[in-house]
Amino acid sequence: MSAPLKVGDNLPSGVTFSYIPYTPEKGDITSCGIPINYDASKEWADKKVVVFSVPGAFTPGCSAKHLPGFIENLSALKSKGVDVIACIAFNDAFVMSAWGKANNIKNDDILFLSDVGTTFSKKFDWTLGERTARYALIIDHGKIVYAEKEPGREVSVSSAEAVLAKL
């Protein structure tokens, strides 16, 4: 395996996630679309992107502490020039889509992406066994400019407030 990704590195090519795009006609939590491959390397090449990773959708800490900060700070993040906000976890695309809908996220305000097999998180060496670790990234036009993994179980360096302070 190559050295883990870090600040200053370019996002490698071939970074893909499994994803179910939001559609108004399938807006309720019981109906889901078909998962697609979301090519982040291509989609994020010319954008400012905030990525936050959680150990699991619908888990207490992620649902009560981590995700709400990003929901509350959507407009503040956008006002700092952020084009894409993405939440990733090891859960499959159906669970990630349902979690977004359960939190009333519409119009892809936050992308809920499945890091299948923790393939992306392993590029940073940031996993918790078979789960994604809790971390945050800022990627500016393909370059990683912020990358912090939580040292423990708290939400500090990967919080929306911490990310905002680095934008």
TrEMBL record:
This is Thioredoxin peroxidase. Belongs to the peroxiredoxin family. Prx5 subfamily. The keyword Oxidoreductase applies. The active site is at residue 62. The lineage of its organism: Eukaryota, Fungi, Dikarya, Ascomycota, Pezizomycotina. One of its GO terms (molecular function) is thioredoxin peroxidase activity. It comes from Oidiodendron maius (strain Zn). GO terms for biological process: cell redox homeostasis; cellular response to oxidative stress; hydrogen peroxide catabolic process; response to metal ion. The keyword Oxidoreductase applies. It holds the Pfam family Redoxin. PROSITE patterns: THIOREDOXIN_2 (PS51352). Thiol-specific peroxidase that catalyzes the reduction of hydrogen peroxide and organic hydroperoxides to water and alcohols, respectively. Plays a role in cell protection against oxidative stress by detoxifying peroxides. One of its GO terms (cellular component) is peroxisome. Residues 5-167 form the Thioredoxin domain. Keywords: Antioxidant, Oxidoreductase, Peroxidase, Redox-active center.
